[in-house]
Structure prediction request, 162 residues.
Amino acid sequence: MNLFTGESADEFFGGSVPPAVRRLLDEAVGAPPSRVEALLWTAQASAPDCLPVYYLLYKFHAGRRQFELAEKAARKGIDVAGRQAKLNVDWTKVQGSDGDFSSTGPARFWLFSLKALAFICLRSGRSDEARALVGHITRLDPTHGLGGEVLTSLLDGSAAGD
Prediction:
């Protein structure tokens, strides 16, 4: 769900949302930031396998430049999605044949969250880690369905400014 518009995009962002979590997310729409944060982390605690909550958490915190919290949420989301998709816990060992990264579901959400983590690393000043993540994302998404080339451009721009 988009906290700003209220539109639902559950399938793309990791699957269905239980009704109790949906109520928390609905309450978060238009709430003050401190309330949004409390509602999102409450939703995560009450449904730790609900992938869309991790998306909302890392987007919320990254948007507020709270990169440590955004990274915490992204890494939790990656772990949960990886477990659901039966992927290796070490992202560097995941191969293209390990999951369906082009269709909605946990494997796609895992890859999408890996991209979010790369962005968070870049914004946190860890361009080497971001570059490693982007390289792996590119190998798993050779058609650039997730827009990894945007991160590559940002990384190339940050390297030029070094």
